[in-house]
Amino acid sequence: MEISSSTHSRQVNEDFSSAIEPSKTRKGTVVVLKESACRKHHSERSQRKDRLAAMGEMAAKIAHEIRNPLGSIELFATSLQASLEGQPDLQLLAERISSGVKSIDAIISNLLQFVRPNEANRFERFDIYEALDDSLFFMEHLADKENGVNVKVAYGPRPLFIKGDVELMKQVCLNIILNAIQSMPGGGELCISTVQRAMTHVGRPALVEIRISDSGVGIEPGNVFRIFDPFFTTKERGTGLGLSIVHSIVEMHGGIIDVESTPGNGTVFSIGLPLCADATEAQESAYEKAMEKEVSA
C-alpha cells in the first residue's frame, strides 16, 4: 500500500484487528500502518546480530586453538633472544618473531570482544563524558587545525550516567572518531554531540544519544549496512574488525548503533545507551551545586 502527499510517498504495510468492548460487542476496526522501510531496517539489524553471534562462537574456538601453540612460540622466541647476546642481527630476528606473536595475540583479543558473556558482571556506573572527553584528548594530535580538522562539541546535560565498562566505551568512541578523521584526508569538520532522550515506554529507561558526524568522503550506499560485518573493510590495510567490535560493545551495554551516510557529504554515527535510573537526580544535584557556587561567589 502506498501513501502519498504533495511532496512525498511512502510504502507501508497495514494490519487490521477488531476493537472489542468488554461486553464482547465489536466496536470497530483498528488499522496499524507500518512503513516497509522500517521493517526492512529491523530485519537487516536482526540479520547482522545473528552474523555477529555466529562470529563470536567461532572466535572463541579459534582463540583457544591458536593461543596454546602461540604461547610456546613466544616463550621459545624470548629464550632465543636471550641466548643470542652479542649477535645483534640474530637477536633482531628473534625480536621480530616475538613482535609477530604479540600482533597475532592482539588480533585474537579483538576477536574475543564478540564473546564476553561475563562482561556485564563487571559493569560499573560511570559518566559517559569520561569516555568522550578522554577519547578527544587522545585524538587531539590528529584532529587539530594543522591537519585541517575542525572539532565542534555540543554536549547536552551533565552528568549522564550509564552502567558499563568505561574502557570499552572509550574504545567505541576512539574507533569512530579515528574513522571520521581518516575519512577527511584534506581536512573537514568533526562534530560530537549528546542529547538526553526521555523514556518513551513504561519500563524502558531514558537514553543518552551520542552523535559523531564528519564531513568526509562518506560511505557508498551498498556498504552502509555491511560496515559492522566482521572482516568487511574498504581500507587497503584494514582488518575489518574495528566497527564490528564497536557494534558488539554497544549491544553489550544494551544500546543500539546506527549509521547514515551520503557519498561526498560525510557520515553520522548515532549511539543510544540506556541511562542509569538515578541519572536525572545526579543532574539536579550537579545543577544545585553549580548554583550554590554562583551564589557564594
Key structural traits:
297 residues; alpha+beta; Heat Shock Protein 90; single chain
Question: What does this protein look like?
Answer:
- It is a single chain.
- The protein has 297 residues and is an alpha+beta fold.
- It has three domains: 2-38, no CATH class; 43-114; 119-281, 2-Layer Sandwich (Heat Shock Protein 90).
- Helix content is 43%, strand content 24%.
- It is built from six helices and ten strands.
- It has helices at residues 36-83, 88-111, 128-138, 166-182, 242-252, 279-296, and strands spanning 2-4, 9-20, 26-35, 124-127, 149-154, 161-164, 188-197, 207-214, 256-261, 267-274.
- It has a five-stranded mixed beta sheet, with helices on one face. A three-stranded antiparallel beta sheet has the order 1-2-3.
- It is globular and about 95 Å long.
- The mean pLDDT is 78.
Give a topology summary:
Elements: E1 2-4, E2 9-20, E3 26-35, H1 36-83, H2 88-111, E4 124-127, H3 128-138, E5 149-154, E6 161-164, H4 166-182, E7 188-197, E8 207-214, H5 242-252, E9 256-261, E10 267-274, H6 279-296
Parallel strand pairs: 5-7
Antiparallel strand pairs: 1-2, 2-3, 4-6, 7-8, 8-10, 9-10
Helix pairs in contact: 1-2, 3-4, 4-5
How far the N terminus sits from the C terminus, by CA atoms, comes to 64 Å
Assigned CATH superfamily of the largest domain: Histidine kinase-like ATPase, C-terminal domain
> How many distinct folded domains?
3
The largest sheet is: 5 strands, mixed
Q: Number of helical segments?
A: 6
Tell me the overall shape.
globular
